[in-house]
Design a protein that fits this description.
By secondary structure, the protein is an alpha/beta fold. The chain is about 45% helix and about 10% strand. The protein contains 13 helices and 10 strands. The strands form 3 sheets. A 6-stranded mixed sheet has the order 2-1-5-6-10-9, with helices on both faces. A two-stranded antiparallel sheet has the order 3-4. It has a two-stranded parallel ribbon with strand order 7-8. α2 packs across α3, α8 packs across α9 and α10 runs antiparallel to α11. The radius of gyration is 21 Å and the shape is globular. It starts with a strand and ends with a helix.
Length: about 325
Amino acid sequence: MKKHLVVALAYDRLCTFEFGCVVELFALERPELGVDWYDFQVCAVEPGPIRAAGGITVQAPYRPELLALADTIVIPGWRDADEAPPPALLEALRAAHARGARLCSICSGVFVLAAAGVLDGLRATTHWRYTERLARRHPRVMVQADDLYVDQGQVITSAGSAAGIDMLLHLVRRDYGARVGNLVAQRLVVAPHREGGQAQFLPRPMAHDEQGRLARLLDWLRANPALPHTVKSMAERAAMSARTLQRQFQDATGMGPVEWLTRERIAIAKDLLESPDIPLAQVAERAGFGSEESLRHHFRRLAATSPGAYRRQFAAQC
């Protein structure tokens, strides 16, 4: 079978960090994973030398035909949010989108996708510095100002720099499942899973003691998902009032404690489902859902598929 081809765009005044993240995720060989890993190519969007941030010069082939072959195209930022992308690039992206290729952007790369028209009527995000400009310039795009990344199926956008890593790991999980995604995150020495709906930044800095108590609570909840948890019990564990706990969860993660915990439990369930020998009832119990019915309900809501379909897709790859 043809390998999944990921193509990263390169351009003059390239965003070095974002480009490096894409290379790190997709270009390295990963035989330890035991899966058929991606093919990776770089496509310059224009001829000539490519100068990257930090005084680096990048040599990349100017091969527009690569975009016609790509399964996933990643735009690692754009050199200037106020500069119109080349018409030939926009046309190539429209053609790729029409044939079903997956289009992804990091930070200001969203302006390229918006200019191509592939974000019209969809939710999207970008770095918080650019959200107002994006909404003003492209009113047909539903801008999610606070999200780390937004997955709309065929088009995925992320906020600034480090949020791009979260988005790229999310793509790996979509393609290969939670086990492989966690192994790649471990190799990168980053957190294995951050939900796209988490806040980009704290609207109000928490006191050091508050940060410590919340961090310890999150670690404890991740280690004990099967216990019965309520807002009251979580607040007591963190030695906070329920109101303070709700506010701090919202500030730190962009969601309330119950929704955060449910999403963590779904991540645990995905990992368990990739082992074909664990009965579904046991998956539900170990992930903290209590019943198969509850697991199915939340899995469909958050993963847009059933536990059985997820297992059929990913258990065979393990």
